[in-house]
Amino acid sequence: MQLNFLTAMKLSNAQLLLQQQKLSPQQIQMIKLLELPTVMLEQRIKEEIEENVVLEEEHPAESEEEPQQISVEEYLREDDTPAYKSRLNHYSKDDQPRNIQISGGRSLQESLIEQLGYKNLSEYEMQLATFLVGSIDGDGYLRRDLESLADDIAFSLGIETTSEELERLLSIIQRLEPVGVGARDLRESLLLQLEAQPLDTSERRLAHKILQNHFEEFVKKHYERLMARLDVSEEEFRDAVQEIQHLSPKPGNLFSEEGSEAAPYIIPDFLLDYHDGQFDLALNSYNIPELRLNRHYVEMIREMATQKGEKSESDKEAIQFIKNKIDSAKWFMSAIKQRHDTLMRTMQTILDYQREYFRDGDRSKLRPMILKDIADRTGLDVSTISRVVNSKYVQTQFGIILLKSLFSEAMQTQSGEEVSSYEVKNILQEAIASENKRKPLTDEQLMNILNDKGYCIARRTVAKYREMLDIPVARLRKQI
């Protein structure tokens, strides 16, 4: 028995011929360049310029200067190589100076800690309270339970505490500004905000009772059941609901002292103009620097190649180093050009496919289009098309459009005509916008409306499109 076991465990050597497909490092880099939007491509090029001393930005307005003669000894001498030799000015001479807006505001946590300083807490309590404040997220909620936080405090601060002690300190934090901060869930936050106001009206008292005792039914919008259980009229219930709707579901957003930066601009990757019935498509390369090889290093290689006699070991190392940098620079410039050609080829095909839409921006004129449609027409792989359209924008005369939003599934009408799923979504939005909010349309009723208009669509597809439009189910759309 022991012999059979050893025989089964015996290792053997065998040659296997396997065919595997692996991407080279250059191909991986090319894929990453293709995915980059214009704003990130600019940064990527500048990083490459800083890393590769042979690569430099080309300034057309520069005067033609004779390349300086650089000897190998000067190149290899470390004392003559300053630390900032790769630092370049990445701004054009025509660029106007721009003021950089620096935010000087405080964060929510900084404001809370400052307010805690007026609460006469001991050093020990202040440490615990500061840790609790640091665990509050941007919406103003404390998402973790107090027992887990007590374990974290013991591990990181070396302080033994209890959930009861943290509960006491949390109640102090919950009385700070903005009102509702430090709550564990939505119900607690709304109650904190409501209790901060005097409950001197019947509407507020009823709103407090709803949140305190009937929150689950209120969230599920079981309004008739709630009105019967609370024995109130529809008008009284509506006034209480309005009091609740005035509260903030994200109290952290109420903090206004934090210096907020302006929303980032969308920099389009393509520029599309339409005039006199003609389209003019171009790649947006406003801030993309033109690249070239540094002439000094090119001349150095030529000089070293023409030198006669035996070359020293340091000369060979210098030649090999510069050759590697030149090869890397040439490949990078070639990859940028290939990216340009691939993007223009893809965008031109999309323009030809959706020509009617790009004339005036009418989404009803969008043709059904999937990635494979463009891949077949360009001869490129579907994955390449996916990388091109991902996070890319085109500027048109009617606005900036996300390329990915132009792709949609095909729906078939009863007459056999194929239409874009956007057309179906528009009808859904219109039907829901005009529905009776006391009796919202169910998915099945929406399906019947679409079927009556000639669109062959199932109820589950209606539900899918409704969720894509961020529209809740009929029960949650109900109003009184």
Topology:
Elements: H1 2-8, H2 25-35, H3 38-51, E1 55-58, H4 72-76, H5 108-116, H6 123-134, H7 146-156, H8 163-173, H9 186-195, H10 202-213, H11 215-219, H12 223-230, H13 234-245, E2 270-275, E3 278-283, E4 290-293, H14 295-306, H15 313-353, H16 355-360, H17 371-378, H18 382-389, E5 393-396, E6 399-402, E7 410-412, E8 418-420, H19 421-433, H20 443-452, H21 459-468
Molecular structure report:
- The protein has 480 residues and is α+β, with helices and mostly antiparallel strands.
- Among the domains are: 108-254, no CATH class; 410-477, Arc Repressor Mutant, subunit A (Orthogonal Bundle), CATH 1.10.10.60.
- 49% of the residues lie in helices and 7% in strands.
- The chain has helices spanning 2-8, 25-35, 38-51, 72-76, 108-116, 123-134, 146-156, 163-173, 186-195, 202-213, 215-219, 223-230, 234-245, 295-306, 313-353, 355-360, 371-378, 382-389, 421-433, 443-452, 459-468; strands spanning 55-58, 270-275, 278-283, 290-293, 393-396, 399-402, 410-412, 418-420.
- The strands form three sheets. It has a four-stranded mixed sheet with strand order 3-2-5-6, with helices on one face. A two-stranded antiparallel ribbon has the order 1-4.
- Helix 7 (146-156) crosses helix 8 (163-173), helix 10 (202-213) packs across helix 13 (234-245) and helix 20 (443-452) packs across helix 21.
- It is extended.
- Residues 63-67, 72-104 and 256-263 have low confidence and may be disordered.
